[in-house]
Design brief:
Blueprint lengths: L1 H38 L20 H46 L5 H24 L3 H25 L5 H22 L2 H17 L8 H22 L3 H25 L3 H26 L5 H26 L3 H21 L5 H22 L5 H19 L2 H19 L14 H19 L8 H31 L6 H22 L3 H20 L7 H31 L1
């Protein structure tokens, strides 16, 4: 009983403590509510629920304050700490230049002293720029460093060209060291402007020292190659992709001027030029898709710019370098570039590297060089035929692979070559019928449009597809009639046959129409049957309104009999076909 009483007493004690705790919490809540009301809202004001989101629309005062801050930290600071620094450095350079000119004119400083002052001033600017960079004055230090680089470039130029105080090789070495120092400072200070200045100075170094004829070509081309690698490494390390374009343009300019001047003074150096042209081509060709493939970054304008101009520059410079000695191989060079670009494009696609824009760009470059190769390698009479073969291949490949770009390229090339395949060239004597370059051009052109019509034949939801289908059919018919007329006339002249040309042409059209209708029915090719019916219609109109006015009576009887019989026979064939289908 004692234990039971103690247990009951403990339970009562716990109840009392809980009641006291509840009263304390209630009192605390009342005090907190009174403090909140006294700080802000009036008594009885409604409060938003906890789920209600606060308004995100800034007040007019906060918007104005934001604009003021952006203006001060944006435009004002850009002008104050960046633009004024650059302008100030340029003004100081002019001031130093005028002072030195004044001192030179008055004979205060000799030639060696002038160059020494220039180098000391440039080094002083570089040291001052590095010191200010450590102190945190980023833009100020960049301006000083850029000014120092420029002064050293100009001092070296004066030392070698105006005063002949140092040799060309010494000046060249100084400029290389200066360019390297500029690149290292640009990397250290994270200064793109300084990197651009250093790169410009590097590519202009051969011109600054007047190196044409004073430094051998091999050294100059090797220097450009090493400079390219350095600039491209800096562009990669700091992600300054604009340096890639600068490096390419600088390479093209430096190579063109130096190789041309060297050839004028010392004669051509064909294989030295071609070796380094190939090295430059590989460097910038790989660079065009390096970022895309290696880091899966989308292809940019910079990549396409380098890809396009690199191929164009390599082929143009190689043509200028090799054509005099190896002119008959220039078409082979274009074919080799075609195979290279197409192989790279297909390899990237197979391994699923790079994006679609890169693939199409490489494919486009390959097709361009293939088109260029044809007139270079073939006789002028066979250029159209070769282009037409290319067009047919592209149309077929684009259709089979489902690649619209290739298909459109083939159709575009087909359209461009159509005038050449229609217009008959001048022949002094009638050529062998069918076995001549004009006949080949016409047959390939007609085949291209028939192939295109077949591709556009399957019905789809596209509105443009029927237009393309019937457009290609009509062009094919027109080309066929045009060339068939020429071929028949040429045959009469070649074999000296005494027949009416109008009769022979109309008869040939009827024969062609019959062949096409039979082919279309046997193979169940509706598009071929349409072509045949159109040809029957055109032939009948030609006979009735043109040929009968000029034919002798015998030929009129023959042609009308033949055409009438053929038309009746075709009609019967259609009725028989309809009956057979109805029975099925």
């Amino acid at each position: 009983m004692d234990e039971r009483e103690r247990f009951l007493e403990e339970m009562e004690d716990i109840k009392r403590r809980l009641a006291a705790l509840e009263r304390s919490v209630s009192s605390l809540n009342q005090v907190m509510q009174q403090q909140t009301i006294s700080k802000g809202a009036a008594p009885g004001a409604s409060y938003p629920s906890a789920r209600t989101s606060p308004s995100l629309t800034p007040s007019p005062d906060s918007t104005k304050k934001m604009k003021d801050t952006l203006f001060k930290d944006g435009l004002e600071m850009l002008i104050g700490k960046n633009l004024l620094n650059r302008v100030g450095i340029i003004v100081l350079l002019f001031a130093v230049g005028y002072f030195l000119k004044y001192s030179f004119d008055n004979g205060w400083i000799g030639e060696l002293g002038r160059v020494a002052i220039g180098f000391l001033a440039g080094l002083s600017f570089l040291v001052a720029g590095d010191i200010n960079m450590r102190r945190g004055y980023k833009y100020f230090s960049q301006g000083l460093s850029g000014g120092g680089i420029a002064i050293i470039y100009l001092s070296t130029f004066a030392a070698v060209n105006y005063y002949q105080l140092i040799s060309a090789y010494t000046a060249f070495s100084l400029l290389i060291i200066t360019t390297l120092a500029g690149g290292l400072l640009a990397r250290r200070q994270d200064a793109l402007g300084l990197a651009i200045l250093a790169a410009l100075g590097g590519f202009l170094a051969p011109f600054l020292i007047g190196s044409q004829g004073r430094i051998d070509l091999l050294t100059l081309l090797l220097y450009i190659c090493i400079l390219d690698l350095g600039v491209l490494y800096l562009a990669y390390y700091k992600n300054w992709r604009s340096l890639n374009i600068l490096a390419f343009l600088g390479t093209a300019l430096a190579y063109t001027v130096n190789s041309t001047m060297y050839a004028v003074q010392n004669g051509p150096s064909v294989w030295t030029n071609q070796s380094f042209l190939t090295i430059y081509f590989v460097i910038f060709g790989a660079l065009a898709f390096f970022y895309n493939v290696r880091y899966h970054k989308p292809t940019t304008f910079s990549d396409l710019f380098i890809l396009t101009l690199n191929g164009g520059f390599f082929f143009g410079a190689s043509y200028a370098n090799l054509n005099y000695y190896y002119g008959e191989w220039m078409g082979i060079l274009a074919v080799a570039l075609t195979l290279l670009y197409l192989s790279v494009a297909l390899a990237l696609q197979r391994k699923e590297w790079g994006d679609r824009l890169l693939f199409l760009s490489l494919l486009g470059m390959g097709l361009v060089f293939l088109t260029i190769a044809i007139p270079l390698q073939f006789n002028e009479h066979w250029v159209t035929a070769a282009w037409l073969v290319e067009a047919l291949v592209l149309i077929f490949m684009g259709y089979k692979a489902g690649n619209k770009m290739v298909l459109i390229s083939g159709l575009g090339l087909l359209l461009l070559t159509t005038p050449n395949s229609v217009s008959a060239p001048y022949f002094a004597d009638p050529p062998i019928p069918l076995f001549n370059h004009h006949s080949l051009d016409a047959i390939l052109g007609i085949g291209g449009y028939i192939l295109a019509a077949y591709i556009f034949y399957p019905p789809s939801g596209s509105r443009i597809r029927p237009v393309l289908r019937w457009g290609t059919i009509m062009i094919a018919i027109i080309l066929t009639l045009s060339h068939l007329s020429w071929e028949v006339n040429n045959l009469l002249q070649y074999f000296r046959l005494d027949y009416s040309a109008g009769f022979a042409v109309s008869l040939s059209w009827v024969i062609l129409a019959v062949i096409l209708i039979l082919w279309g029915m046997l193979k169940d090719l509706e598009i071929i049957r349409y072509i045949s019916l159109a040809l029957f219609a055109v032939t009948t109109l030609k006979i009735m309104f043109i040929d009968l006015n000029y034919m002798p009576m015998v030929y009129r009887i023959i042609i009308l009999t033949v055409v009438g019989a053929v038309l009746v026979g075709v009609s019967f064939a259609y009725q028989k076909k309809e009956k057979k289908e109805a029975e099925l």
